[in-house]
Amino acid sequence: MGFIHSYCEANSSISHTWLDEGISPCFYFTLVPTTLLTIAFFLGTIHRIFYQKYGTAMEPKFIPRSRLYGFQQALSIILLLQFLGGMAWQAATARELPGYVVLYGCFSILGWAWAVSTLRVERRRVLIMDRTRGHSAVLLLFWAVAFSAENLAFVSWYSPHWWWNLENNPQQVQFALWLMRYTATGLLFFIGLKAPGLPRRPYMLLINEDERDVENSRQVSLLGRTEENESTWRGFWKKVRLLVPYMWPRGNVFLQLLVLFCLGLLGVERAINVFVPIYYKNIVNELTDGSSWHTLATTVCIYVLLKFMQGGGAGASGFVSNMRSFFWIRVQQYTNRVVQVRLFSHLHSLSLRWHLGRKTGDVLRSIDRGTSSINSLLSYIVFSIFPTIADIVISIIYFITYFNAWFGLIVFICMALYLTLTIIITEWRTKYRRDMNLQDNNAKSKAVDSLLNFETVKYYNAENYEVSRFEDAILKYQASEWKTQASLAFLNQTQNLIIGSGLLAGSLLCAYFVTEGKFRVGDFVLFGTYIIQLYTPLNWFGTYYRMIQNSFIDMESMFKLFEEEEEVKDEVNAGNLLYKLGKVEFENVYFSYTNGKEILKDVSFTVLPGQTVALVGPSGSGKSTIIRLLFRFYNVQGGCSKRTILRTSLRAHIGVVPQDTVLFNDTIRDNIRYGRISASDQEVEEAALAADIHDKIMAFPEGYDTQVGERGLKLSGGEKQRVAIARTILKAPQIILLDEATSALDTQTERNIQASLAKVCANRTTIVVAHRLSTIIGADQILVINDGRIAERGQHDELLLKGGLYAEMWLNQQQAQDSDSSSETESKDRKSEKLQPPSTSAGHQGD
Questions:
Q1: Domains of the chain, with CATH numbers?
Q2: Over 50: is that where the pLDDT of 225 sits?
């Protein structure tokens, strides 16, 4: 039975940190449990106080069931039993039990018990003010230190005081206990990064989503903005699958060879990074040993050549790196072009409902940031992350092989701490970057909306108000930007502290070995050169991680645009429109823009080829909606329309003159030619003549080359409508849809265009939405729409005889027209009376 004789063994002291080519067991087994207990007790206690004071108990339905969490708890309990069993075994077998063994066992049991308790608290309670997800920094730090401490045992690989020789039964048992600790702490650390058993989303968000209707919870914003605290790595593989088509240029052998060549250059860079410090060491050793000039000159030339190939320490500006960047330009341009073209094509395939609800500024910013972020992401992953990881692995292997395990362990511990803290801090500051993007979009949207509504701003003298709104948006953006930049500075300082500590420890150890005669001066130069060369990309590794995460954040909005599904799709068996055999038909159609408010209710009508059908009725009755459904802008919710044909074929046979005409910011000639891109200038002018706008165009200084401005703002409403009519005339469609086509025209111009439209619409199916009933007297059929239903149908004379809604509308318009005519007559009479001088009668004077 063992008993405590002294705190350390007889031949050691706690002040001796290095003993027989290894760490002193007394020092090690005192430092490790003390550090772990300090973290668990002090930080863990503060953590538990916050959870008890400011937290709330989670409802069981929000706590996910996870077998991995059960495994996490089991590992922690196994470690507790291991510490207890190890201390009991040593007490039973050792004649003299050192005091540090008892301290190690007791402190470790207390620390891990506190960690298990903290783990259970995090599963059952949640901080309402905590807006992140996953385990707390206290637990992650505890597991990281525990795992790093077990790795410190490798430093004592050659020490006889440790268990590596496995010469006797005690060493074999100690090795088995260490292997159990090493495996369990490593698994706990890496499982802890995933945080099983905890909600994957903020708890308050889960509560809010549970309280509102599921359907309403899915009504997200236009770009589907994710929650500000959701990890950017969520859905990582889904994002990677979207990126794969842009990584490999399919169908282009030349670009594929360029990609392979660039990857080959990347491998050459890795080899150069290894040989540069080796040749530098050889130069120092040859100078020290007094080697011949020929040998020294050869080594120096090879070193300079390698340095020229490598560039500034990390290959940032070397010959190989520059060549790789040069050849990669074509691949990058291919990726940029494919992304923008596919996204642009996808946006045009979306429904009118989506485009009516979009914010143009948000969409443009998302496209710009998304396309640029894809190029950045591919560049960082392929040419920064993978090479840096490769350099770190190669360096660890090289240091262990050429020097000893101590140097490899220094690099490994620094890398582990560096990456762990970088991930934790970067995940924490993600919400600031995402909020900054939101405020940036908001500021740009306000600017775009204000400039597009320039005239409205002037009408209401609201310039100061618009400037104030924009300034407020900028201030909110700058507040988020400050948080982003401040958290970035904190992260950089943390990274510099870790890198500096590792460099100091390695340099001191290497210098010690040089003074002991185990290393040469060139070896110290090799270590210093190699470690600085390694830390340079490692220092950038955090930047690469942030950039990749920022790229994911910037791509989120663009991915949401890609995920927007087409509302209107062609049916599987849809074919081309055979106009001569087809007809326009609505059969019991129901439609609504939003749930709960039906616009069309049981609408049925048939338009035969060559007929003219007029839709009349009060404003908001659903006339324009029927036009949009005919053009397949929306899908009907009930009934059916003619939908067994391809949209492109259907729209190729339809010409539309909308109520609100929007023109491209181009010349009048190109705006008219948009009806048929292949039309000649003569055909464009003939269409303008038919639309009664040719003379007006020729009156402009630049004629048909006149720029119409954004959305056609330089033209009047009537001029824009006539350009739209000319565009439709040029298209020469078989089906014509006129939605208040002459609403913005004066009476004389309307009569001229009506005569032109009558010629154009001859022998063509025509559907007219009209407000002035006098323009549709000759229609083959008139449908009176009221409250989303067809109230009356028939020809003009028939509807007048019925004395219904149409007759009432006709009477009201006639009375209004007579009133306007009499008002004009009276006004002319008054003007003529004022112009005539007062007359006098001679006969009257005589009387």
A1: 3-194 (no CATH), 220-563 (1.20.1560.10), 579-653+733-826 (3.40.50.300), 664-727 (no CATH)
A2: no
